[in-house]
Design brief:
Blueprint lengths: L2 E11 L16 E10 L4 E7 L3 H16 L9 H13 L5 H22 L3 H5 L5 E10 L5 H13 L4 E5 L6 H15 L4 E5 L6 H10 L7 E3 L7 H10 L4 E3 L7 H8 L5 E5 H4 L1 H14 L4 E4 L2 H10 L6 E3 L12 E3 L2 E3 L12 H6 L4
Helix pairs in contact: 1-3, 2-3, 3-11, 5-6, 7-8
C-alpha cells in the first residue's frame, strides 16, 4: 500500500453571529485547508489544517502542499516515520507554526486512511479505552455578551442537553464585575452543570490568584489560560494558590513544552490542541506523558477528530464540543446525555461535505 496522490483546498466557513450559532459577535469566518491523501488501492484519508487568519491561509496551503508532496510513495501505515521526516524537512530540528499545522493535517489523514484500511475506527487503533466520552459546549458564551445574554444562552444550552459548558471572562474592569459574570452563569444553569472559564491569557498572576479565590464558592470545573502560556513558573504559583484546577496547554507547539509544564507543576488539567501538537500522534504522546504525572488530558477544538484521542486515553477527561469545523463534514458528532458517542465506522467516521466545500472555496 502506497500513497499515490493528494488534494488540498482552501475554504472559509461562515460562523454566523448570535447565541447558539457557534460564532463570536461579528460573524468571523473559520479558515481551513482541507487535505485528501489517496493510496494505490483507492483508500482515502482526510485531514485539515486551519484556524489561520486570512493573510496566512495561502501560506498554510503552500506549506501543506509542499509537505504532502513528500508523502508520495510512502507506506501510510508508517505514521511515525512519515511524521518525523516531515518535521525534519519543514523545521530543521525546531518545527512550529505552519510546519506543525501542516504535519498535523497529514498525520490525521494517515490515521484515517489506516483505520479504513484495517476496518477499525481510529479510537480503537489509538488505544481503545472508551466508546463514548463526556463533552462540554464551547464557542457560545462570549466575553462581549452582557449578563442577560449569558444567562439566556447558558440556559438554552442546558435545554439542548449539555451538562457542561465554557464561558469567557477577563474583559471587565473590576473584580466585582468579573464575579458578577460568574454568579450569573451559575444561577442560570444550576449547580448540576459543570462550568469552565477561559481567560485567553488576559490576566496577570496576581489578578488570576485574587479573582480565582473569589470564584471558589461557585464550583468552577477549571480556570483556563489565565496568563501567558509560556510563564511556567507563574502558572505554578497560580496552581499552588488556588483550589480550582488550572487548565492550559492549547497554545503550545509540539510536545516539549508539555514536559516543561509538567515538570514545573504548572497545570492540573492538560489541554492539547490537535493542530499545534502534531496531530493524533503528538496528542497521544502528550496524553501518556500527562498520565505518568497522574493528570487528565482534554481536547482543544477539532471535536470530530479529538473525540477519538480522548476515547483512546485512560486519562482522557472531556472533549470540547466546538462547532466551527462541523460545516466541512456530512455529519456531526452524536451527543447523548452529555456524551459524544464514537462512530463505529472505519477511520474517523466522517467525510467531507463536497458541496459545502465547493460553495465556500477560496481561490
Amino acid at each position: 500500500m502506497k500513497i499515490v496522490s493528494f488534494e488540498t483546498g482552501a475554504v472559509s466557513l461562515p460562523r454566523e453571529e448570535g447565541p447558539l450559532s457557534g460564532g463570536p459577535p461579528g460573524g468571523i469566518a473559520a479558515n481551513f485547508v482541507t487535505l485528501k491523501l489517496r493510496a494505490d488501492d483507492g483508500t482515502e484519508g482526510i485531514g485539515y489544517a486551519g484556524f489561520a487568519s486570512s493573510p496566512m491561509l495561502k501560506a498554510l496551503e503552500a506549506a501543506l502542499d509542499g509537505l504532502a508532496e513528500q508523502t508520495i510513495g510512502c507506506d501510510p501505515m508508517m505514521v511515525e516515520q512519515i511524521g518525523a521526516r516531515l518535521l525534519a524537512l519543514g523545521g530543521g530540528g525546531s518545527p512550529a507554526g505552519l510546519v506543525t499545522r501542516s504535519v498535523s493535517a497529514i498525520d490525521v489523514a494517515l490515521w484515517d486512511m489506516r483505520g479504513k484500511a484495517l476496518g477499525q475506527p481510529v479510537y480503537r487503533l489509538l488505544g481503545g479505552f472508551a466508546d463514548r466520552v463526556p463533552t462540554y459546549a464551547s464557542g457560545h458564551l462570549w466575553r462581549t455578551y452582557d449578563l442577560d445574554m449569558l444567562a439566556k444562552t447558558g440556559s438554552d444550552l442546558v435545554e439542548q442537553g449539555f451538562t457542561a459548558m465554557k464561558f469567557r471572562m477577563g474583559g471587565e474592569n473590576t473584580d466585582a464585575r468579573e464575579i458578577e459574570r460568574m454568579k450569573t452563569m451559575r444561577e442560570a444553569v444550576g449547580d448540576q452543570v459543570d462550568l469552565m472559564v477561559d481567560i485567553n491569557q488576559g490576566w496577570d498572576i496576581n489578578t488570576a490568584i485574587r479573582i480565582g479565590r473569589l470564584m471558589t464558592d461557585f464550583g468552577l470545573y477549571w480556570l483556563e489560560d489565565p496568563i501567558h502560556h509560556q510563564d511556567y513558573v507563574g502558572y505554578a504559583r497560580i496552581a499552588d494558590a488556588l483550589d480550582t484546577p488550572i487548565a492550559t496547554g492549547e497554545y503550545h507547539y509540539g510536545m516539549i513544552p508539555f514536559r516543561h509544564m509538567l515538570e514545573h507543576r504548572s497545570v492540573d488539567i492538560v489541554m492539547v490542541d490537535l493542530l499545534r501538537v502534531g496531530g493524533l500522534t503528538g496528542f497521544m504522546k502528550v496524553a501518556h506523558m500527562a498520565e505518568i504525572y497522574n493528570l487528565p488530558v482534554v481536547s482543544h477544538l477539532a471535536t470530530e477528530v479529538l473525540a477519538h484521542a480522548i476515547a483512546a486515553a485512560p486519562n482522557g477527561l472531556i472533549v470540547e464540543h466546538m462547532p466551527w469545523t462541523f460545516g466541512m463534514f456530512t455529519e456531526q458528532p452524536t451527543v447523548e446525555d452529555g456524551m459524544i458517542v464514537l462512530p463505529q465506522s472505519p477511520g474517523l467516521g466522517v467525510e467531507f461535505d463536497e458541496d459545502r466545500l465547493k460553495a465556500y472555496a477560496l481561490g
